[in-house]
Amino acid sequence: MNNATATDIPATMNDATTIRPEEAAHFGKLAAEWWDPAGSSAMLHQLNPVRLGYIRKAIDAHFRTDSRKLRPLEGRRALDAGCGAGLLCEPLARLGAAVTGLDAAPENIAAASSHARAMGLAIDYRHGELAALEAPAFDLVCSLEVLEHVADKQAFVNALASRLSDTGLMILSCPNRTTRSRLLLVEAAERLGKVPRGTHEWNQFVTPEELAELAASAGLDLGEPTGIAWSPTKGLHLAEDLSLNYIVTARKA
C-alpha cells in the first residue's frame, strides 16, 4: 500500500483568504499531541466516534449503501478541509475513500502524514489555502469544527461548495453561539483543561441560521441540523438539542 503523502499548495492570489495565521499557529503547536487520547486533543477523541456515527448514516442515506458494508466509500473521493492530524481522514480511508486532507498548519500535516504511514494508509495530505487546492470534485466534503476558526466564513463555504461534485455530500459541524456553549465550551472546558486555552473564540461560533444563509449563498441546500450535546451520564452524544454544537449535511442546490 502506498504511503501517505504531504504537499504544500503553491501560493496563489487566493492565499490567506480564509486562513487566520494565529489559528494555524495555535493548532500547529498541538500537533505532537493530536493522536494522544489523553493529551490536548482529548475532547476531539471523545467527539470523533459521535461524529463518525452520524457520518456513516449520512453516507448510507445519500449514496444508498448498505449499512453492513465495510467500505461504503469504495471508488469515491473524499476531502477533509481543516483535517488537523487526520482523526477523520483515517476512518474515511478505512471506509474505502481516496482521501485528501487539507490543513492550514504544516505541523498538523506532518503529524497526519507520519501517523497515516504508520497505519499503512494512503492519504493525500496538503498544506495551504482551500481556495488554492487543485483537485477534481469530491464525492464527500467534510469540514468539522473548522468554520469557527476561519477568517472569511462565506469565502470558506464557497470554496467548500466549489470542491463538491454535483451529486456529492457535504458534512459540516460547528459550535453554536449560545449562552450554553459559552459557559461549557469556552469558560468551563478551557478553565478545566479539557481543551487548550485560546482554542475557542465564542463570537466566532456560527448559529444554524447563519450557516443556512452561508450555505444558500454558496449554492447549497442545508439539511436539518442534529445537535451534539453533553450530559454527565451520556457524555457527548447526538441529540435534538442544538445549543452546544451541531452537525449537518449539505448538497448542491
Write a concise synopsis of the structure shown:
The protein is α/β, with parallel strands linked by helices and about 250 residues long. The chain has helices at about 20-30, 40-65, 90-95, 105-120, 155-160, 180-190, 210-215, and strands at about 5-10, 75-80, 100-105, 125, 140-145, 165-175, 220, 225-230, 235-240, 245-250.
Structure description:
It is a single chain. This protein is of the alpha/beta class and 253 residues long. It has a single domain, classed as Rossmann fold (3-Layer(aba) Sandwich), CATH 3.40.50.150. 33% of the residues lie in helices and 24% in strands. It contains 7 helices and 10 strands. Strands 1, 2, 3, 4, 5, 6, 7, 8, 9 and 10 form a 10-stranded mixed beta sheet that branches. Strand 2, helix 3 and strand 3 form a beta-alpha-beta unit. The longest helix is centred in the N-terminal third of the chain and has 22 residues, at 42-63. It starts with a strand and ends with a strand. Mean pLDDT is 91; it is low at 11-16.
List keywords for this structure.
10-stranded mixed sheet, UbiG_MeTrfase, 10 strands, 7 helices, ubiquinone biosynthesis, alpha/beta, Rossmann fold, 253 residues, globular
Beta fraction = 15-25%
Would you state the CATH class? Alpha Beta
- How many β strands by DSSP? 10
Task: State mean pLDDT (0 to 100 scale).
Answer: 91
Distance between the termini: 37 Å
The low-pLDDT segments are: 11-16
Number of domains: 1
Series of secondary-structure elements, N-terminal to C-terminal: EHHEHEHEEHEHHEEEE
The name CATH uses for the topology is Rossmann fold
Summing up helix and strand content along with how strands pair, one would put the structural category as: alpha/beta
Output the radius of gyration.
Answer: 17 Å
The number of helical segments is 7
- Largest sheet data: 10 strands, mixed
- CATH architecture verdict: 3-Layer(aba) Sandwich
* Overall outline: globular
The percent of residues in helical segments reads 25-40%
